[in-house]
Amino acid sequence: MSLRLSALPSQHSPSTMQKFTLEQVAKHKTTTSCWVIIRNNVYDVTDFIFAHPGGPNVIMRYAGQDATAAYVPIHPSDTLEKNLAPEQHLGSLDSDSILRLKDAGKNKVPTRDELRVEKAVKSKPPLKRIINVEDMEEVAKKVLPYNAWAYYASAADDSITHVENGRAFSRFFFHPRVMRPVSECDTSTTILGYESSIPVYISGAALARLGHPLGEINLTRGAYKTGIAQMVSNNASLSYGQIAAARGSPDQPIFFQIYKHFNDAIAEKRIREVEALGYKAIFLTVDALVPGNRELDIKAPYYLEDFENQGLSTQTNADADEGEANQLGSAGGLVVNNDANMTWEKTIPWIRSVTKLPIVIKGIQCVQDAVLACEAGCEGIVLSNHGGRQLEYSLPPIELLYKIQQQRPDVFEKTEVYIDGAIQRGTDVVKALCLGAKAVGLGRAFLYAQSAYGEVGVVHMVRILQREIRLVMQSLGVQKISQLVPQMVERVDWQ
C-alpha cells in the first residue's frame, strides 16, 4: 500500500527553517516520535499515525525515512496545507543530506517490475493501431506499474459483478429501422444543460497519477479538446484547483464527485471550495460507504514481493501466525471517513443548504431508490454499482435501467439518468440511450487511455467512441440522439 498522510507546510521562510541531517531524522521512527521526509522537508507525523486512513503501518513503513516516492503520486499538491498544524513542519534537510538522497536515487537499482514497465513503454504500439477500448486496456496493462494496474482493475470478491456489468449488454438486441436518411448524423447531446459532443462523460476515478505524471490534467485537457464533460474524483491525485486551472476555458464543464465526509464542516468546506473553483455539479457517491473487498489490489504487495524474488519464498516460517493481512489495499483508506449515516431526508436538504449546484446521486442500484431520488428533487442519478468494485452481485446498471423503463418510466421525465460500468463499445452506449439514459460514464477506460498515451490517448478514446456511436446510430436509422427510443432494443435471454 502507498503512503497516504497529510502535513502542513511551514509558514517560516527558507532562511529561518531548521536544517536536519538524515541521521537526525532516522532517530525518529517510533509511534511516540515519528518523522518523515517529503520533498526534502521534514514533518512530525506522530499525532497522525493512528488517524491515518490506511492504518498506522503505512506511515511506520517510512518512519525516519524519505517518503517522497510513495507520497507524491497519490497526494494533491494542497494536501500538505489542509491537515496538520504549521509547527508539524519541522524544517528541511541540510544541503549535504539533499545531495545524498539525490545520489541514492541515481544509484537505486530498478525493480523487476520497473524494468518490465520500461521495456513495455519502449515497445508499445503507435496510437493509430488502437482501434477500440479493449486495445487501449491491453496496452495500459503492459505499461502500468503492477500496483497501479491492480488498483485500477480490481473488483469486488470474485469479480462476478464486474464481469456481468459487461455481459449484461449482450442480452439487449436492436430493432433497426431502414430506408431512412442518415447521411447526416449528430452524436451531440447535453448533460445537465452543458453541450457534449457525444453522450459520454469521463467518470470520477481516483489516483490518475498512478498511471501518468500529469494524471487528471490529461483527462481535463483531453475532455476540452473533444468537447465532453469530466467528473473529477473526490480522491483525485491532483488538487481540485490544479484540475480547474487545466481547463481550456472557464466554461468547460467539470463536475465534482464527492464522498461526503462524516464531519459536516469538512464536507461543507470541500463543496464550497469546488463551487468557488467553477465546478458545475455535485455527484454524491452513495454506493461506497465502506471499503470494498478488492482482492487484486489487496494482494498486489505480495505479488510484487514474489515477482522481485522470482517466486522464491522469503518467509522463514510460513506457518507462523502474523495476524490478518491488511484488507484495505490502495483504495480502502480512501473511504474510511465517509458518512455512513446519510439519508434522503437529511443529506440532500443539507447539501442544498450548502450549494446552489445541481445534485446528482451516483450509485443508484434499485428502482425504489431511483424514485426516491426524484422525490428528493435531485437533478440526476447515476445507475452504478461502482464498476463492480463494491457489493458483489449487485445488479448490472443496464439491467436496472431496463427495469426502470419497464416499471417507472416517469423517472426519465423527472430527472436525468446516467449509467456507468463496463461500457466498452458504441453499441453499449446506444443501447443505454435507447432505454432512456441521457449519457454514460466511463472511468477505467479513460484511466487506461491517459496512462498509456497521456492527453492524446484521451482524445483518441473519445474519437473511437464517437466513430462507433455514429455507426450504430446510422445503422439504426436515426440522425440524432433524441430519436433513440425503447422500441429500438429488446431484451433477449437465450436461456
Give the mean pLDDT.
90
Main sheet attributes: strand count, strand direction, barrel closure = 8 strands, parallel
The stretches of 5 or more residues where confidence is low (pLDDT under 50) are 1-14
SS class: alpha/beta
Beta content comes to 5-15%
- Helical content class: 25-40%
- Number of helical runs? 21
Which strand order spans the largest sheet, edge to edge or round the barrel? 9-16-15-14-13-12-11-10
Oligomer: single chain
Q: In angstroms, what separates the terminal alpha carbons?
A: 43 Å
The rounded Rg comes to 24 Å
The number of E-state strands comes to 17
Please tell me what the overall shape is.
globular
Q: What keyword list fits this structure?
A:
single chain, 495 residues, alpha/beta, 8-stranded parallel beta sheet, 5-stranded mixed beta sheet, 13% strand, disordered N terminus
Per-chain topology:
Blueprint: E1 18-20, H1 22-26, E2 29-30, E3 33-38, E4 41-44, H2 56-60, H3 68-71, E5 89-93, H4 95-107, H5 112-123, H6 133-143, H7 146-153, H8 160-167, E6 172-174, E7 189-191, E8 194-196, E9 200-202, H9 216-226, E10 230-232, H10 240-245, E11 254-258, H11 264-277, E12 282-285, H12 295-298, H13 300-308, H14 329-332, H15 347-354, E13 359-364, H16 367-375, E14 380-383, H17 397-407, H18 411-414, E15 416-420, H19 426-434, E16 439-442, H20 444-453, H21 455-476, E17 489-491
Parallel strand pairs: 1-5, 9-16, 10-11, 11-12, 12-13, 13-14, 14-15, 15-16
Antiparallel strand pairs: 2-3, 3-4, 4-5, 6-17, 7-8
